[in-house]
Amino acid sequence: LALYFHTGEREEKCIIEDIPGDTLVVGTYKVQRWDIHKHDFLESASGLGMFVTVTSPTGEVLLSKLYGPQGTFSFTSYLSGEHIICFQSNSTRFAVTAGSKLRIHLDIRVGEHFLDESAIQAKDKVDEVNVRLEHLIEQIHHVTREQDYEREREEKFRKMSEETNSNILWWAIVQTLILISVGIWQIKSLRDFFIAKKLV
Question: What average pLDDT does the segment 132-142 reach?
Answer without folding.
Answer: 82
